[in-house]
Amino acid sequence: MKNVKDNIPTGKVERAMKLVGTGARIGTNYLKYYARKAVNGETSKETLHRDNAEDIYESLSELKGSALKLAQMLSMDKNLLPRAYTDKFMLSQYSAPPLSAPLVMKTFKQATGKNPQDVFDSFDLRSVAAASIGQVHRASKDGKDLAVKIQYPGIADSIRSDLRLVKPVALRMFGLSEREMAKYFEEVESKLLEETDYELELRRSTEISERSAHIDGLRFARYYPEYSARRVLTMDWMDGLHLKQFLDTNPSQEVKNRIAQSLWDFYEFQLHTLRAIHADPHPGNFLFTSDGQTGVIDFGCIKEVPEDFYYHYFPLLLDEIHHHPEVTRPILEFVEIVFGNDDDATRRELSQAFLDMTNLLARPFQVDRFHFTSEYIDQIYAKGEEIYQLPEVRKPTEPRGNRHALYVNRTYFGLYTMLADLNAEITINRDTAWRDDLLKYWKLR
């Protein structure tokens, strides 16, 4: 198999040196760029971005774990990096270089105490998918086709040290201070550690799948604790295509709308009923079929939504709330957009900017049917860029934004982007109990 990995750097020094070596290659790429520019005059940066993206992705692919997960998260934000980076990093959603067969055998035995051939009737040592935390193999047992997810060796132990290594790069990339990013890195670290606990994923997968089984058009795998462990997770094999492959088959708009409706209903149910959401809605975590069915295949990243955050954040989805400043003021303070010691001008500027953005994001909730388009997504990114240019946002005097919003926002941006890729028009159920519940909480009904 091409580009398989016979080992993964696990020691702190080894992993740090890998990033240092990548930095040196990036420096060489810049020297080449400036040399070409000196000779040719005006030279496009496209080649520079492409070379840098290739080197960075190669390095992160070898490190895997939280380093590669960062690339996966960045690939979802098409407005943050040049396209050469997002295109390359998007590979981490589907097809990172897999482990070699001997390393697969060794890793499985370390996790379970047995060889895979002793557990299953058949086990394919070639992976069918390899991403940031682990890779998937096809197996069978007692006539059942199974998918076996095996976690990369040393990933769980390297997360904290990896984030310390990546933090300076991220701070420089986004122009942020360590103080401002501290609470967000804590949130990312806690979620990444959860993603390495396959026993936790098994419990969550089973619970959410069973409670969401009534949603039309969704398919969920059965999970097998008897063939699983803390670093191995076994479930039913599910057929289907990832989003890009599926769209390449030119499905009808009717089928795409059916898929989009299922996804929308799934996330609405998770958020407003379960108060826990599948917070990793990138296309690699879903499988689609020609008859419009959607398979959900990964529950590693689940964001549990605290009750106080729920009642102080999601009311902004409702148009009625925006007409009541006596409600929006405490909401904006709770979610840490404004603070009590802000001067009037700063408070007005940040409040208006945040309410403008939430009004834009809330458009689907304010109509009976909504058409998700690429133009709508472009509007969201443009508004985000406009807000980022505000002085108090670009160089804040203190950290802004509640930590719980990080994965919730990421979830909705990911969901909206998938629905726009489907160019889908869906029905919005506006006659729902959660709307009344939020309005009653704020004594508006």
Overview of the molecule:
By secondary structure, the chain is of the alpha+beta class. It has a domain at about 305-440. Helix content is about 55%, strand content about 10%. The chain is built from 18 helices and 12 strands. It has helices spanning about 10-40, 45-65, 65-75, 85-90, 100-110, 115-120, 155-175, 180-195, 200-210, 245-250, 255-275, 305-315, 325-335, 345-360, 375-390, 390-395, 405-420, 435-440, and strands at about 120-125, 130, 135-140, 145-150, 220, 230-235, 275-280, 285-290, 295, 300-305, 370, 425. The strands form 4 sheets. Strands 1, 2, 3, 4 and 6 form a 5-stranded antiparallel beta sheet that branches. Strands 5-9-8 form a 3-stranded mixed beta sheet. A two-stranded antiparallel sheet has the order 7-10. β2 (about 130) and β3 form a beta hairpin. The protein is globular and about 70 Å long. Mean pLDDT is about 80; it is low at about 15-40 and about 75-80.
Hey, roughly how much beta strand do the residues contain? 5-15%
Give the helix proportion (percent range): 40-55%
DSSP E strands, number: 12
Q: Topology as H/E string? A: HHHHHHEEEEHHHEEHHEEEEHHHEHHHEH
Tally of DSSP helical segments: 18
The SS-based structural class is: alpha+beta
**Can you give the mean pLDDT?**
80
Low-confidence spans? 15-39, 74-82
**What's the Cα radius of gyration?**
23 Å
- Describe the largest sheet: 5 strands, antiparallel
Distance between the termini: 62 Å
| Gross morphology | globular
